[in-house]
Amino acid sequence: MQLQQLTTFISTVEQALQVAPDEVRRLFHGRGRSWEGLEQITCDWLQGQLVVSLFKEVDEDFLTALRETLITFTQSAIWNERQGRCILLQHRYESGAPAEVIFGELESRPVVVENGLKYQLHLGSNQNAGLFFDMRLGREWVQNNVKHANVLNLFAYTCGFSVAAIAGGADQVVNLDMAGSSLSKGRENHKLNGHNIQQVKFMAHDIFKSWGKIKKNGPYDMVIIDPPSFQKGSFALTKDYKKILRRLPDLLTPNGKVMACVNSPAVGSEFIVDSMQEEAPDIRFVERLENPPEFADIDTEASLKVMLFERNA
């Protein structure tokens, strides 16, 4: 991280905020490596709150200058025009990802909007806020392709895909995640949007021990697979992903769709395509979804990979 690049950082944030819609948005994505010397910093706009995240420890001079730069930013015209209220600095490289309020008073449970849908975030106490912003176009695609569908949402987390699916007219969504607390937040996200909870199932189970229960609620017109890259004791991507893919023929309808995602920079898109061909050859690759432009990466294979498949009838 280079101290002299902070001017570039804050000017880019300012320009992005000037054109950002009145929704949650990433304003600066240093991790895409488009800005030399700023590879370990990101900045997100949460409709009045600015969250700046550091992914690598920096020296005290950089940290002091960053804090001063952010405080100065609160005097800018665009900050006041967009009704900025708070700046949170999160240290993602430290255990527990501690955060400090740089300016204002933190609203730790804000409700934000993405593509017209509401989601409640949880700031300041967790590494992740409750919604992965780089999956914005993935949720939009689901919303546009699930009319009257029965959807299986694996590794559901806080049910962002589920919210998008019900909003798009899905008949039912089955959410599965080991963390019951995350599913509880997903239930609240549905309630925020006025959805009929009777159309949504929440299953706090280990996926690899629950195939019978999963199959019972099928067959599915769409299966969404968006696992963590690694979850100690429960999921290792390159080892366990294929175990899921080989189950798909028993879960999908004749023309069923699959969204298979990988967010590890070490695993490329070919892994998903080749693994699907190997484990479920009647499910053909259709296309890779583009990522949101604000998440541009100099190496597309290192960024989020959202791969779409369809079963041959």
Description:
There is one protein chain. With 313 residues, the chain is an alpha/beta fold. It has helices spanning 6-19, 60-73, 77-81, 136-144, 160-167, 180-192, 211-216, 237-245, 248-251, 269-279; strands at residues 25-29, 41-45, 49-54, 86-91, 99-104, 111-114, 117-120, 150-154, 172-176, 200-203, 220-225, 230-231, 235-236, 252-262, 283-289, 305-311. Strand 9 (172-176), helix 6 and strand 10 form a beta-alpha-beta unit. The chain folds into two domains: 3-120, RNA methyltransferase domain (HRMD) like (Transcription Regulator spoIIAA, 2-Layer Sandwich), CATH 3.30.750.80; 133-311, Rossmann fold (3-Layer(aba) Sandwich). A seven-stranded mixed sheet has the order 10-9-8-11-14-16-15, sandwiched between helices. It has a five-stranded mixed sheet with strand order 1-2-3-4-5, covered by helices on one side. It has a two-stranded antiparallel ribbon with strand order 6-7. The model has no long low-confidence stretch (mean pLDDT 94). The radius of gyration is 20 Å and the shape is globular. The longest helix is centred in the N-terminal third of the chain and has 14 residues, at 6-19. The protein has ten helices and 16 strands. This is Methyltransferase domain-containing protein. It comes from Vibrio astriarenae. InterPro entries: SAM-dep_methyl-trfase, SAM-dependent_MTases_sf. Residues 25-309 form the S-adenosylmethionine-dependent methyltransferase domain. Keywords: Methyltransferase, rRNA processing, S-adenosyl-L-methionine, Transferase.
